[in-house]
Specification:
With 254 residues, this protein is α/β, with parallel strands linked by helices. It has ten helices and seven strands. The chain is 46% helix and 19% strand. Helix 8 runs antiparallel to helix 9.
């Protein structure tokens, strides 16, 4: 995809316009990995855990029943969603992938603290969401939390997830979105454009990462626009639900 063909959040880069977005996203998350979990909790006042659980419970209810589900967590980061899935479905095999070695290092440290039986059912690896290293129709459930707006080519990433999803399987996307109400929207803009970048610079030491955050949220397709893109990628049905005045939206696609 050329620069002129890029759409929405694909045009928003963490650092500059001289390099591919994927390379910069990897660099950014390597930089903020040590502070990532703390910042998520601080930025959302802990609500990200409630959002995660609401989305996962809905996804697990929609997922087809099977003896040993195969689950893929794309843009797994420090493994927050992957470990929560393991708590909900301790018999499932969960694979988490990410571009960032720094984030994966945190996830693997967390994995080492689990009993051996649990460790055998989870794996983390470095992989590109635009070229997933898995065969067709491999997974019963695919999750991606706060990751799709970082895709260098969103439509290609969605198509890849559709390719490795089994017939009847579920894709669950959780993504930050802009509140729709006037009052909530104004408060959101002040908070995300001024307060979060300041805290992010102090905590993570990265001057750009938490300025990129609200820019990429605002530019990314949201709600029905993302549902329409999922349809173009081959998903026949998508339902979505916004939470907390529209600050986050989750999508379930088949």
């Amino acid at each position: 995809m050329t620069m002129t063909e890029k759409r929405g959040a694909e045009r928003i880069n963490p650092y500059d316009d001289r390099r591919e977005k994927g390379e910069q996203v990897e660099e950014m998350f390597d930089s903020i990995a040590p502070a990532y979990d703390f910042m998520n909790t601080a930025m959302t006042f802990g609500l990200h855990k409630r959002w995660r659980d609401r989305a996962l419970k809905a996804a697990l209810q929609a997922m087809p029943e099977c003896a040993r589900p195969e689950i893929l967590d794309v843009a797994t980061g420090t493994g927050d969603v992957a470990f929560r899935i393991h708590e909900f479905l301790p018999h499932a095999h969960v694979t988490g992938i990410d571009l960032s070695a720094g984030m994966l290092e945190v996830a693997r440290k967390r994995l080492k603290s689990l009993p051996e039986r649990d460790r055998r059912l989870m794996a983390f690896g470095k992989a590109d969401c635009l070229a997933l290293p898995f065969p067709d129709s491999r997974f019963d459930l695919i999750t991606v939390a706060y990751g799709v707006r970082n895709f260098q080519d969103l439509e290609q990433g969605l198509k890849e997830m559709k390719r490795v999803l089994r017939p009847g399987g579920v894709l669950c996307i959780v993504e930050l979105s802009c509140p729709t109400g006037a009052v909530a929207g104004l408060g959101y803009k002040v908070y995300t454009r001024h307060i979060i970048p300041g805290i992010g610079r102090l905590v993570s030491g990265d001057n750009r990462a938490y300025t990129y955050l609200p820019e990429s949220i605002a530019a990314a397709p949201q709600r029905q626009d993302l549902a329409d893109l999922l349809g173009k990628a081959g998903f026949r049905k998508t339902v979505w639900k916004s939470l907390t005045f529209g600050a986050v939206t989750y999508y379930l696609s088949k």
